[in-house]
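Hi there,

I know you've been waiting on this one. I reran it after we fixed the sequence typo, so this is the corrected version. Both the input and the resulting structure follow.
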Amino acid sequence: MIKGRTNLRSRHPLVTVVGYFFRQNMKFVMVILILVFAVFASAQQKEPSKAFEAAAKYSRDHRGIAVVVMKGDKVVFEDYAMQGTKDLPWMLASGTKSFSGVMFAAAIEDKLISGFDEKVADTITEWKSDPRKSKVTIRQLLSLTSGIDAGQIGRVPSYSEAIQSPARHDPGTRFEYGPVPFQIFGEVLTRKLKPRAETVDSYLKKRILEPLGIKVSLWRKNANQPLLPQGAVISAAEWIKFGQFLKDRGKWNGKQLIAAKLLDELTIGSKTNPAYGITFWLNEDGIGPSGGERLSISGDIGKKMSASTKIYMAAGAGNQRLYIIPSEDMAVVRFGAFGDYDDREFIGKLLGAK
């Protein structure tokens, strides 16, 4: 055997030279191969998913302005149309509401509020003499089941005006969508923060916007107080940060800013309306507002998805959406300019279910 190999090398000197070079430069060759494979893998990762492309096309075909997909801690897909860009300020409309839910969780953690079921009348003490208002909890207020007249969509009273709204039903018996409950929550926070010489505006910035580095283009106000049902105007690049924070259950840059269990509570529907938690729409059958901002992925699309696929969203008029899909480690911003848009169609395409 040894003699045979020696004879082979003597007959093929080029083989001997190449073999010698390879042995002497094995480390160099391995480094080159690793780099080649790394570049190839990177290129593969940057190639947009066909599912994302299909969802983006659906969005564009239905007056979509922007689609931004974050998976893990990276934006993996972006699509803009109708002169939209990632930095274009856009009105969130009722997508603003979910900032109140997160402020609620933060206020509990900061011991400004004792818990989700604290009575509103403990702070708005003039409610104590009202047989219905005296029983309303802050959970019921922000899950829109307080029984208080929710007001007309688009007409937002000041905080002090909102607390004058009458209770039409017993707490927990009706779901009613409107701006008033969020402005009442603003008055609750205003009174809670007064001893600390803070305002709703300063608390919102200190507890949410500044830690997440969210730059707000505009937050509309009434009586110099932030409109909590519909006041925020921000870009897709900024709203996706809020989505990442929610997806990661309150963790940001390795630090837990708000306890995960408190944020989890926001995504539990009420018995009155399983499709709405505390300021978030849920992937459950239930009641939607007249504007149709209800996320229910059922039927054929739902059957194609995993039973463990939990989805919730912040939603605003004109089809503004912030979807959170924990099972996919995904947050998605979708901006629109009204149009005939369907959440089920978009999500189905996004997850490859259609």
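Quick highlight: Residues 1-48, 298-307 have pLDDT under 50 and may be disordered.

Best,
R. S.
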